[in-house]
Design a protein that fits this description.
Blueprint (H helix, E strand, L loop, with lengths): L1 H29 L3 H38 L10 H8 L10 H35 L1 H12 L6 H19 L8 H21 L3 H10 L4 H29 L3 H5 L5 H11 L1 H35 L1
Helix pairs in contact: 2-12, 3-12, 4-5, 4-7, 4-9, 4-11, 7-9, 8-9, 9-12, 11-12
Keywords: Cell inner membrane, Cell membrane, Membrane, Transmembrane, Transmembrane helix, Transport
Membrane topology: Multi-pass membrane protein
Family: Belongs to the binding-protein-dependent transport system permease family.
């Protein structure tokens, strides 16, 4: 009897040790002294701060130099806000600069933003939705075609587009720079495609369409009343990114002999580089403002969804 009792106690102790061994091992692996944990967190914080500081210096020093250049004359060293005053008043005669070309290029670029975004959305959104519903294989083909402009340099695109634009300008359309919208629609397609694809992959498109169709909704109603409210954030992302690309485009417009903002800035820089640099800073600030606005809108939408 005593032997049996001792054996039972030993078995129970062995089972208890076996049961508690994994927990003890896990606690030993996951737990560490508070001082060591604090040192590790402090070290990681220092590394992150250093990387962020280097990145900000890399991006901020050139911008700071540009800002100083706009206020300090490169020859005389005199500090002045005249270049900025010329931009905001629209009169650069006191500095020997004709700003009419600048305003013409700016107006053309803004018009190109509107027309190009409309063309891009009309081409991409319906085609991507249909391919997402009907055929995933076709969706991969569309993705390959849409991202192809990323692999082709802009100057190579101009070589192919040059004869087409020459024929269009002579026989069909005029030489108005607004017709650059077709070339720009090709340039912005990879960025817009990726933004819209993220929105399509984040929702169950097929289930939404089947549910709406089972309730008697027509396909146009499904598209505009069911899918578009779920995709508007992605469409907004594609729009903002496209605008940023269009405002910074120079190669295609210059080689095709058309006027836009960047070509106007280059021409203005030949007569007054300070005004040209100041306007470049404003254009860059506008692009950054668009991207920051997009991030703020996305965060606001995410919070509203979490609250509801």
């Amino acid at each position: 009897m005593a032997v049996n009792t001792i054996t039972a106690v030993q078995d129970a102790a062995t089972a208890s040790a076996t049961a508690t061994t994994p927990t003890t091992a896990v606690s030993q692996q996951s737990g560490m002294p508070p001082q060591l944990r604090a040192m590790r967190v402090h070290k990681q914080r220092i590394i992150k701060t250093a990387i962020l500081a280097v990145t900000l210096l890399f991006l901020g020093v050139p911008l700071l130099c540009m800002l100083i250049f706009t206020m300090r004359h490169p020859l005389t060293g005199r500090w002045s806000l005249d270049p900025w005053k010329a931009i905001f008043t629209g009169d650069g005669s006191s500095l020997g600069a004709d700003l009419s070309t600048l305003w013409s290029g700016l107006g053309t670029s803004l018009a190109l933003c509107v027309v190009t975004v409309i063309i891009m959305l009309l081409l991409l959104v319906p085609v991507m939705v249909i391919a997402h519903i009907r055929s995933r294989r076709m969706e991969r083909v569309i993705e390959w075609v849409a991202t192809l402009p990323l692999t082709i340099p802009a100057i190579v695109l101009v070589v192919g587009l040059g004869p087409i634009y020459r024929w269009l300008s002579a026989d069909v359309l005029s030489t108005n720079p607004i017709w650059l919208c077709f070339a720009y629609a090709i340039l912005v397609m990879p960025y817009a495609f990726r933004a819209i694809a993220v929105g399509l992959n984040s929702i169950d498109v097929l289930t939404l369409c089947e549910a709406a169709r089972s309730l008697g909704a027509s396909w146009p109603r499904v598209f505009f009343r069911v899918l578009m409210p779920n995709l508007w954030q992605s469409i907004l992302s594609a729009t903002f990114i496209s605008i940023s690309v269009i405002l910074g485009e120079y190669t295609v417009a210059s080689l095709l002999g058309r006027m836009n903002l960047q070509v106007a800035l280059y021409q203005l820089g030949q007569s007054n580089s300070q005004i040209s640099t100041a306007m470049s800073l404003l254009a860059l600030f506008f692009g950054v403002l668009l991207l920051v606005s997009l991030d703020l809108i996305s965060d606001a939408m995410r919070r509203s969804k979490e609250e509801h």
